[in-house]
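Weekly puzzle thread! Below is a chain. First person to post its structure in token form gets bragging rights.
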Amino acid sequence: MAGEIESMASNMRSKMGGDTISSSTPCIFRIPSILRRHNKEAYIPNAFSIGPFHHGKKDLEDKEKIKFNYLEGLLYRTRDPDTTLMECIKEIAKYETEARECYAEEIHMGKQAFIEMLVLDGCFIVELFRKDAGVLQKGENDLICSTSCMLQFLQHDLILLENQIPWFVLERLFMLTRSFSETKSLLQLTLDFFAHIFSFEKSPVDPDLFSNQEIQHILDLIRSSLVLPLEGQQGQEEPPVSWQPIPSATSIKESGINFRKVRSTSILDVKFIRGTLEMPSILIQETIEPAFRNLISYEQCYPNCSPRITSYAILLDNLINNEEDVEELGKSGILINWINPHDTPPFFKMLYHDTFVKEFYYWKVCWEVNKYQRKLWPKWRAFYAHNFFAKPWAIVSQIAAAILLVLAILLVLTFLQTIYSMK
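Winning reply:
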């Protein structure tokens, strides 16, 4: 028995060392099955595989030709295409180990295959962003820029958590192939490509915000572009024990609270000021569900990542319970809905299921709204305005009633004055 115990202990000790514990922190993950089950299609690429997780899948293989076409175009703009290609391969080969450690699981690809994949996928993305920004001329036969569905596919595929390559790979390939006439950074090109994924009215993000930020990959950059503009706005105070979720949009409106659309650099910039809930507009369209789901999954998987996007999804779910709430937010221009209004409430309700939120970032907004809602005067004012001033005939009747009331008061005063004078 003692020998068996020692054997088992030895076996367990052998599994504690080696590659099971790494000093680096991975930033690219497989979607946990508990999150994937809610909508599998939101996590898998439609057309283009980027990185190792979906590399070699048969339904995506035909798009490899487009990647090589973009690589060829990139190389043949340089003075010496062969030398440039070898420089790209040599540079990325230096960081093979670091690139592998960015993935949360062991990558079963040989050195050559792994480096070739990073160079091909990275150059393809860099070339795509340059063409989209107008840095390069778009050819008539370009299968991506001349086809609307391809751009839609890429807006989806490039924001998937499982479909990422490390940012430092992209950055090094960008710098090796950059021309002297280029003025925009890779960061700015990327933000421009995804500028309207959440809203048409979003103000541009200041690139200086990222000066001290270590970007992990494209999805991390998109998240940072939403979170960084609001850094420092969140107070350090602890939420009260008794705080409650924010009521629905129609309930808020009935209590005398107004909605106001504001322009901001981030859709997360939600504030409650003097009886008005201020929110930037958000565009509800096909690509927004994969964007939200992958951002939320990233927050759940990446260590010490604050749940800012998850908190926003919870806030929207509380505000939108039915089609009336969708209509109410649409009136103020906060919600620009391109999908069926009937599908909008369940869409937000399912976004954050099976997630854990240690810190809800909108507790103060919820607390202030609920506190204001308990006041009587705003409720009476809203009730009176809704029931007696909602339609033209109601307004006329209220004016007529007011005139009659004034006349009645004058008549009473005249009568009392006559009686007093008779005495």
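Puzzle host: Confirmed. Bonus trivia for everyone else. Residues 376-380, 382-386 have pLDDT under 50 and may be disordered.
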